[in-house]
């Protein structure tokens, strides 16, 4: 008979409850801080719901009424430089952190519960939620995207669990600045099941990050109960799987939350890694808006009344009154003062009386602000040394393309301690799967981070570190198809952050990936990602076809304050070309194409390995083609001057790419060309592009799916024939 040994996990899992002594030890001053901040947040939410009722908000309003105790208790234990982000229901956390930053705990609310600097925070927060220009994100973020970097408010997030990987990146950044700051990522019970949260728990544990996973378990994800979503409703049990200590606490008891937070901070500041706090709270209203959940019949009025009896505002008032630290008159005065402050703040943003108010027209953002801040203005390149290969006076030697990738990364990391690399297997196999990170882990031990196979979390962590403003991550996605695993972080978070948060958030992320068509890796490893990223404004895209251009474009990518996708091609890795070997200090401008071969009959627009294939076809078969290496592929990076000059000369265009027609870059480019240069075109834009299906493992089917030499010859021949000239091929 098998012997059975009962196992225990190593990380502690502790329930923390406050005692009467804990409440007394805080004294009148400590409890008054809690009482004051609770009422400020509650008054804010109540006025916001009134505005929503009057139709003066646009979009959902996720009220935090009932959940204030968790936010206030945790912030009371933090230092000003600790960081916090949250989810779509994050008004209470944002306000708690922001008001603490401006000194709310230094006030005596019996004297003045809402001086002007407090009203200013309330007003800017309310303006943001109403979509007005004076908001913290210029009205772009609204209720679900609140960010104020100065106060340590990293940003709330509309994607369930989406902010958690970003917080991990900020925690890594703070740890490697040798600060003693901790980071709190706040999310609800619905987020607890999301893969990015589970991935981030693991990542934080193996990197020993000062990150607190603060779970607000309010019992419902919209209308679905926790019991319906999880085998054990105690969500802090999840921490054990990553050997993370966890605390379970009554979130309606702000003192208990404060005690748990102090324990968590002690652990994190000692360098022992992450912690989880599960605060059991209750949202009084429905998922969004001012109606009770019982109005939608997924919970009862009796349940709501029972839980409302534990209201943290009532509990704190009761505890203070029992100790003779609060009178009925003081309570009424503070409540009236904060309510009056919110009415005044709302009045600064509206005209008219209750029920007939309207937003002051001049406070809306201007329509021309629509696209401002999608990307930066590239002012960081002022004074940069731009040198094309034709004007380069340094030493060039024949080198493998892959070797120059490692060389330029080594040089940049040696000179800039902010640069770090992360990705799967990048520390082994002589530089990852292809050798692009050769020698980096030996030279920069703490700045080459091998990751688990968790693309969503490590890409998001890179984004968080970049947002924090102190580091420049170079993330490797081993194959471009894997971006679909990390799509939330790549497209919802990294690409949108600068614009979403009001154009005020640089995102200096470099994402390296490779096109591996023709290698037999099949449908899920062979994507050309250019077309996908082109459709997500915010990303800059570069595709170097030579080692020289790789050096210049990677230097530019690492200088840029926007996220940059650097696409490589495996067919180029082992090709030997002239490469710089001593001087690696030059830049290639983002947004500058290059005419590789002059011609007069038709313009060829292409990138990566197809540049070389097009030149070879043109040379060997005598096509009078002007071949342009686009190099920069994003919407803002297309060099319309170079492209336009060529089109006006040849009056014919063919776009050449290797990959699938269904994820095509050329389709977008063709549309834009015909809009801009219709009058100069003698015929519609032609394209060389792969088939509809993804590449197959079968060599025959793969060759049929992707475009190559034969397809280029055929299309170039059509270009000549359709110009009404006889086809002449060089034998």
Automatic annotation (TrEMBL):
InterPro entries per record: DH_E1 (IPR001017), THDP-binding (IPR029061), Transketo_C/PFOR_II (IPR009014), Transketolase-like_Pyr-bd (IPR005475), Transketolase_C (IPR033248)
Transmembrane domains' residue ranges: none
MF annotations from Gene Ontology: oxidoreductase activity, acting on the aldehyde or oxo group of donors, disulfide as acceptor
Repeat keyword on record: no
Organism ancestry: Bacteria, Pseudomonadati, Pseudomonadota, Gammaproteobacteria, Chromatiales
Cofactor annotation: thiamine diphosphate
Annotated protein name in UniProt: MFS transporter
Species annotation: Sedimenticola selenatireducens
UniProtKB keywords: Oxidoreductase, Thiamine pyrophosphate
Top-level taxon: Bacteria
Function: E1 component of the 2-oxoglutarate dehydrogenase (OGDH) complex which catalyzes the decarboxylation of 2-oxoglutarate, the first step in the conversion of 2-oxoglutarate to succinyl-CoA and CO(2).
Pfam families: E1_dh (PF00676), Transket_pyr (PF02779), Transketolase_C (PF02780)
Residues annotated as domain Transketolase-like pyrimidine-binding: 399-575
């Amino acid at each position: 008979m098998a012997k059975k040994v009962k196992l225990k996990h190593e990380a502690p899992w502790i329930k923390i409850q406050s005692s009467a002594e804990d409440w007394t030890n805080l004294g009148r001053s400590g409890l008054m801080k809690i009482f004051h901040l609770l009422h400020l947040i509650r008054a804010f939410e109540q006025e916001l719901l009134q505005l929503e009722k009057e139709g003066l908000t646009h979009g959902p309003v996720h009220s935090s009424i009932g959940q204030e105790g968790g936010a206030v208790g945790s912030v009371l234990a933090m230092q000003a430089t600790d960081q916090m982000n949250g989810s779509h229901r994050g008004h209470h956390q944002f306000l708690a952190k922001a008001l603490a930053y401006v000194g709310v705990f230094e006030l005596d609310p019996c004297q003045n519960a809402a001086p002007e600097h407090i009203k200013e925070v309330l007003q800017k927060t309310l303006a943001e939620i109403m979509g007005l220009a004076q908001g913290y994100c210029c009205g772009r973020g609204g209720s679900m995207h609140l960010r104020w970097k100065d106060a340590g408010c990293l940003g709330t997030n509309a994607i369930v669990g989406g902010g958690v990987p970003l917080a991990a990146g900020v925690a890594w950044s703070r740890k490697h600045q040798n600060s003693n700051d901790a980071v709190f990522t706040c999310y609800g019970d619905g987020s607890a099941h999301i893969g990015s949260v589970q991935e981030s728990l693991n990542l934080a544990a193996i990197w020993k990050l000062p990150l607190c996973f603060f779970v607000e378990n309010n019992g419902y994800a919209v209308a679905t109960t926790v019991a319906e979503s999880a085998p054990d409703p105690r969500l802090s049990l999840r921490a054990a799987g990553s050997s993370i200590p966890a605390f379970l606490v009554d979130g309606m008891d702000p003192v208990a939350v404060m005690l748990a937070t102090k324990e968590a901070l002690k652990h994190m500041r000692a360098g022992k890694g992450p912690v989880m706090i599960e605060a059991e709270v209750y949202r009084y209203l429905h998922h969004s808006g001012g109606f009770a959940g019982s109005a939608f019949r997924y919970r009862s009025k009796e349940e709501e009344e029972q839980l409302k009896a534990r209201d943290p505002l009532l509990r704190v008032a009761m505890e203070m009154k029992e100790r003779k630290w609060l009178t009925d008159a003081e309570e009424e005065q503070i409540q009236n003062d904060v309510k009056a402050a919110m009415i005044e703040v709302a009045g600064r943003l509206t005209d008219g009386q209750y029920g007939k108010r309207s937003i002051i027209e001049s406070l809306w953002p201007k329509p021309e602000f629509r696209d401002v801040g999608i990307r930066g203005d590239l002012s960081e390149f002022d004074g940069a040394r731009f040198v094309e290969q034709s004007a380069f006076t340094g030493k060039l030697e024949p080198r493998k393309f892959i070797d120059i990738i490692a060389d330029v990364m080594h040089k940049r990391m040696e000179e800039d301690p902010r640069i770090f690399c992360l990705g799967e297997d990048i520390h082994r196999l002589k530089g990852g799967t292809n050798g692009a990170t050769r020698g980096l882990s030996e030279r920069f031990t703490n700045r080459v981070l091998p990751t688990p196979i968790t693309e969503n979390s490590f890409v998001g962590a890179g984004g968080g570190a970049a947002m924090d403003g102190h580091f420049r991550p170079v993330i490797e996605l081993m194959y471009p198809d894997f971006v679909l695993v990390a799509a939330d972080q790549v497209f919802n978070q990294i690409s949108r952050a600068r614009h979403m948060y009001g154009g005020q958030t640089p995102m200096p992320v470099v994402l390296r990936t490779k096109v591996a068509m023709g290698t037999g890796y099949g449908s899920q490893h062979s994507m050309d990602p250019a077309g996908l990223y082109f459709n997500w404004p915010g990303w800059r895209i570069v595709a170097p076809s030579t080692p020289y251009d790789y050096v210049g474009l990677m230097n530019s990518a690492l200088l840029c304050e926007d996220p940059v996708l650097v696409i490589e091609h495996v067919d180029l890795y082992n090709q030997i070309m002239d490469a710089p070997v001593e001087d690696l200090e030059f830049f290639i401008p983002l947004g500058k194409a290059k005419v590789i071969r002059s011609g007069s009959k038709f313009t060829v627009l292409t990138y990566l390995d197809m540049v070389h294939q097009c030149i070879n076809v043109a040379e060997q078969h005598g096509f009078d083609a002007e071949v342009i290496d686009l190099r920069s592929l994003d919407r803002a990076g297309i060099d319309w001057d170079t492209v336009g000059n060529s089109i006006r000369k040849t009056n014919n265009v063919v776009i050449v790419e290797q990959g699938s027609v269904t994820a095509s870059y050329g389709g977008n480019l063709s549309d834009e060309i015909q809009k801009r240069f219709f009058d100069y075109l003698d015929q519609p834009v032609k394209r060389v592009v792969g088939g509809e299906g993804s590449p197959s493992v079968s060599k025959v089917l793969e060759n049929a799916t992707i475009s190559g030499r034969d397809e280029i010859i055929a299309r170039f021949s059509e270009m000549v024939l359709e110009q009404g000239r006889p086809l002449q091929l060089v034998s």
